[in-house]
User: Fold this.
Amino acid sequence: MSLNNLTVAKFGGTSVADFQAMLRCADIVKNDATNRLVVVSASSGVTNLLVRLSQQNIPASEQQSILANISDIQQNILVQLNDQQLSDEISVLLDELAEHAKAQGINHSKSIADTILSYGEQMSSRIFAKVLQSVGVDSAYFDVRQVMKTNSLYGQALVDIEQLQKNAKEYLAPKLQHQVLVTQGFIGQNEQGETTTLGRGGSDYSAALLAEALTANNLAIWTDVVGIFTTDPRITDQARSIKEISFGEAAEMATFGAKILHPATLIPAMRQNIPVFVGSSKEPEKGGTRIQQQVESRPTYRSIALRREQTLVTVKSPAMLHASGFLANVFAVLAKHELSVDLITTSEISVAMTFDNPEGSTQALLNSTVVQELEQLCEVSVEHGLSLIAVVGNQIHRTNGVGTSIFDTLKGINVRMICQGASEHNLCFLVDEQQANEAVEKLHSSLFA
Ligand code: ASP
Ligand code: MG
Assistant:
């Protein structure tokens, strides 16, 4: 078998949630012989449990119940497979996990936290390799830490891409000639040999990096939705799956809230020009979305993304008038606290910026030190409870009437901030959280009718 037509197939947590789900994925792999490298997430729910387990000061009783819970999820799959050797391997891993949890209870460290987080993928990949074998695919488990070397930024580790490319050619490619390999998303290894993780939802990104390193022909992301939609189908039943979309548009969507892909996923794919397919492992026959460089049509409006829980910070200083360096000082404070600004607009003496708020982290930061430090420089006001809506498409910045089409539709809804012009692919604005769904519904029915 040569590698001149290689697909890297990634299966997300819900796709490998239980035995039945894994069987469907195994069929997908089996039905297309180009699927040779398989990247899996942890079975659905496991990483969330591990996150809790990795935290400081977990009561012993809760530790026990989390471990039991994780064990149950894996056991439910194992009973169906009835493979003693595999069951033993998973038991060993569960014992190790219990040890790490105990150690974490005594002396908490970020390094142990990452080690703990890695067990979901360590187990699901071993199990899925066996499920593949059970349907007649010659497959083996591969430990991605042999090739995915990272720095030591635990929880958000950065991958050494050059090293990965070298390692992939040396260790992975020869093995892929002979067997389908099943490996882990999300995890890597630092120079000291400790396990690291790439950030929540990072399995997509792992798969994309591996596809790039192997110069794969395709990257397939199998999840629980039939591709990328024109907007969140939970907001309007008018939402429909997009057949084909360009890298640029899809990247904007991933950044601005469409939760389907980890935002970094498309970067390696774009570098190597690898088409990315997104589909549902539950309903592979329904097709999905193809993301690639060349697309047949480039409509002005492709989709509407919504991101909730945005924080708007406005800084104001008369000293900014005709002054230089003020913005640099403001951004220095933000950079110091590792806060990343999303949207920005300025007027003569004030600047408004938005921040995403993953797991409440930004709000907590902004509420304390950051605002105090900014107040040394200027007046600061902070508003919560906003939603960011991004209209994504093509040539938005050069098309007549875009503003009218969008804002006429939104009559009666207060638009708090507007950003347009930096990208040809989007126009973004903020609205009150309470009016966000209504705004998206109205826009979708007017732009996509
Ligand atoms: N299992 C990890 C998470 O839940 C990585 C992933 O699924 O992409 O974040
Ligand atoms: Mg995911």
